[in-house]
# Entry
Amino acid sequence: MNVIFKDLNLSEIFSKVVSNRAVQNVSKFINNNKILVKVVCVCLVCATMVGISVTAAGITFGYDVECDGKIIATVRDASVLEKAKNLACRSVEKESIQKAIVKPKLAVTLAVADKLDNAESVANAIIENSEKIVHGSALKVNGEIVACVMSGDLESALEARKNAYNKEGLESSSCFVDSIEIESGYYLKDDLVEAEAVNDIINTLQVKTVSTVVTDSSVDYKTTKVKTDTQYLGYYKVTTAGKKGINRKTEQVEFINGVETARTLISDVVVSAPVNEVITVGTAKAVISASEKANVTSDGFICPISKGKYVITSYYGGGRNHKGIDLAANKGVAIFAVSAGTVTYAGFDSDYGYNIIIDHGNGIKTRYAHASAMCVSKGQSVSQGDMIAAVGSTGRSTGNHLHFEIIINGKRVNPAPYLGF
Ligand SMILES: [Zn+2]
# Structure
């Protein structure tokens, strides 16, 4: 790429005196110094004859510089033109610039000494008068010119490229990975490319985007159970509602052409603390009434739920081969041991939910399922009528009820006759 001459002062170029102006200056001088002129004219004639330059009252021999039939400057001698050509060729491949500039011709002339053009202004005039040299803009990548254009908005094309990877809705800043500069100056017309070609180059430039990413996530609350003996077992009430907190993570994320390359944590703070849930649970055991306790069937059992607090919703057998009897009751209603025995199981099961098995001896066991709470544990001895659990709907259950089974020698039998139903 040939950079011919950078940042020329055009006004300076146009203010330079070309031949016509030199003549005007001489005429003006003559008009203002009529007596002197005669002397000067004599001197000039003499000087011409001996072939040497003369200076008299500021007038001197000089050379008009002519390009393509147009006088573009007036210089003292050929060396100024040579120097000007060298200046015009500065930073340029000599061959190219020699082809680009019109070969100036020199013609002897008269000029006012202090109005002669210096090499720099002649260099500007040479460039201005070459059709092969134009003013344009060069795109420099890491100090190297990669393309020149005559017109076209390099800045807005670069800006558009730079912002193409900004993340929507995020605070972002983008910059080019390489050092990018736009340099305006004079370039060989042949070296210029179309704006579209420069855009193709711009679109290959790597863009680094730094975005601030804020991510909110919820913080789970904890649940605390507070026991109270002022409520029966099975009492369960949320006394303080739990509320999730908010955790805010702020990260600085770097992208190259939109692809993440680095992530730095800026802050990770809880902006809203969670509110822990408090559940109050009853621990008091309900006591069976004396009359219910006395109401023992011929098989030696009492009803596991107090009279009036349950409704039979499903008997043993039927279409779904039900292996027990369902007593629907409100959640928390006390479940009593139907007979004395030892607790052989007290735990959770996906079908039975919280359930208890009591071994009554002689191959007879009873099961109490779907409880909301239990107040006995494995190995514990219970008496007939002791509260062992509270009604609930845990496990495979669609509503609060007690699923009650009687197991004789490992076989679940119809409990109804045993309970006197
Ligand atoms: Zn059932």
Remarks:
- Residues 141 and 180 are 5 Å apart (CA to CA).
